[in-house]
Design brief:
Helix 1 packs across helix 8, helix 4 runs antiparallel to helix 5 and helix 4 packs across helix 7. The chain has 8 helices and 5 strands; from the N terminus they run βαβααβααβααβα. By secondary structure, it is an alpha/beta fold. The longest helix has 25 residues. It has one domain: Rossmann fold (3-Layer(aba) Sandwich).
Length: about 220
C-alpha cells in the first residue's frame, strides 16, 4: 500500500491554525479523504498528560531542556501510536504542530539553538519529515494578542489552564517568530509560508491550493 501524506500546520498560538485545520479537514472529507487529525503536545493518552504539564501555568519554572525533552517524549508516542500507523495505512495525517514548533519555541524562544532540536528529531523521531508544512504567520502583535485572549476564554469555558507560554514576554515570541521564518527559508521544499493579516477565507484558499498541489504530486509518484 502506498504511504500516506503527512501535513503539519505551524505558527504562533493565535495564528488561526485551529480554524484552518477544521476547514481543511472538511475540504478533504468532502473529497472522501477522511484524514487523521491530531495536535501536539497531545493526541494520545500519554501525550495529553504531557500536555497538561507543559501548558499549565501551575507547572512553573520547567527548565528549557526538560521542556524540550517532554515535547519529544510526546512526539515519539504520537508517531508510534497514531502518525506512523496512519501513514502506513495510506491515510492523510494532519498534525497541529510538529518538530518545527520545538525548533521555534525551544530552539528559538528558549535559545537552545536549532542543532540540538534537529539532532533529537533524527534520533527520537527517526527523522520523520512532513510532506507539507503550512506555516501561518499573521501580524505579530495581533497574533500574540489573540493567543492571550483565547487562552483566557478556554480557561473560563473549560477550567483548563493552558497559558504557561502566553505569560512569556514579547521578546520570547519575537525569537520564536524569527526562528519560524528561518525554518521557512531553510526548508522551502516543504514549508509554505502564509503571512500577513489575511481573512480566514484567503488563508483557506492558499492552504487548499498548496494541499491540492501536493496531493497531485503524491498521486503521480504512486
Amino acid at each position: 500500500m502506498p504511504r500516506g501524506i503527512f501535513i503539519t500546520l505551524e505558527g504562533l498560538d493565535g495564528s488561526g491554525k485551529t480554524t484552518q485545520i477544521k476547514r481543511l479537514t472538511a475540504w478533504l472529507n468532502r473529497r472522501g479523504a477522511e484524514p487523521v487529525v491530531l495536535r501536539q503536545p497531545g493526541g494520545t493518552g500519554t501525550g495529553d498528560r504531557i500536555r497538561e504539564i507543559l501548558l499549565d501555568s501551575r507547572s512553573g519554572a520547567v527548565s528549557p531542556m526538560t521542556e524540550m525533552a517532554l515535547m519529544f517524549a510526546d512526539r515519539a508516542q504520537a508517531i508510534a501510536e497514531v502518525i506512523q500507523p496512519a501513514l502506513d495505512a495510506g491515510r492523510i495525517v494532519i498534525c497541529d504542530r510538529f518538530t518545527d514548533s520545538t525548533e521555534a519555541y525551544q530552539g528559538g524562544g528558549r535559545e537552545l539553538g536549532s542543532e540540538v532540536v534537529l539532532d533529537l528529531h533524527r534520533l527520537i523521531c527517526e527523522d520523520l519529515r512532513p510532506d507539507l508544512t503550512l506555516l501561518l504567520l499573521p501580524g505579530f502583535e495581533a497574533s500574540l494578542a489573540r493567543a492571550r485572549r483565547r487562552n483566557d476564554r478556554v480557561e473560563a469555558e473549560t477550567g483548563k489552564d493552558e497559558g504557561r507560554f502566553e505569560t512569556e514576554q514579547d521578546a520570547f515570541y519575537r525569537r520564536v517568530w524569527n526562528k519560524y521564518r528561518e525554518i521557512a527559508r531553510r526548508e522551502s521544499d516543504r514549508v509554505v509560508l502564509i503571512e500577513g493579516d489575511l481573512t480566514i477565507d484567503e488563508v483557506h484558499e492558499q492552504i487548499v491550493e498548496a494541499v491540492a498541489e501536493r496531493l497531485l504530486v503524491h498521486m503521480q509518484n504512486v
